[in-house]
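W.,

You were right to be curious about this one. When I first looked at the sequence I had no strong expectations either way, so I just let the prediction run and decided to look at it fresh. Below is the sequence, 217 residues in total, followed by the output.
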Amino acid sequence: MEHPQLQITADGSHTLFLPEMDEHYHSVNGAIQESQHVYIEAGFNQCQKEVIRMLEMGFGTGLNALLTALEAEKRKVKVVYTSLEKYPLPAEITEKLNYSNLNNNLFHQIHAAEWEKPVSITSSFALHKINTGFTDYDYSSGRYDVVYYDAFAPDKQPDVWSQELLDAIHASMNPGGILTTYCAKGNIRRMMQQAGFTVERIPGPPGKREMLQGWVS
């Protein structure tokens, strides 16, 4: 993949733009606002367990992991966070991201964490970054309470929005688990329902009318 281009979004935080895909990593209407709304408020904060096992589909810039680590500390819960990423960003790009303004030390710890092994970032946040494609991962290896489905859009990467993949993710989740995604497409909602999720359309982040939540019975 070509090196993505750094861009400022409406809330002052960075996103990255991939010219060859004509796709952004985060919403141009506010990267931090989007992640906070879609993944923290509509995902992580919906789980009230004291130990929360999480799966992120797309480590990307590390923004979701950073916000989750900060929220875990605030809530005084323990998070075991697994993140899948086929194309890790080089340090020359991540070092320019202004998310470090949220917590510079924590942001750099998250990016410096070794791949392919669990790393205790803080007393409340353990991170396991795995360099793999979504369709190559063995989902039976974990039982997850929260899933952040943060893949590129279905029209850009249709192979990572398949029925087979959603079936595997649903089977890997604990009862009461929640999957949250910025996507609100009708075909994705129907595939989530077919996989076994109880799906709700909820208000989206700035610039987006709706998004999807999927619950496991």
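Here's what jumped out at me. Helices lie at 31-41, 63-75, 91-94, 104-112, 163-171, 186-195. And, maybe more interesting for your project: Residues 39 and 148 are 6 Å apart (CA to CA).

Coffee later to discuss?

I.
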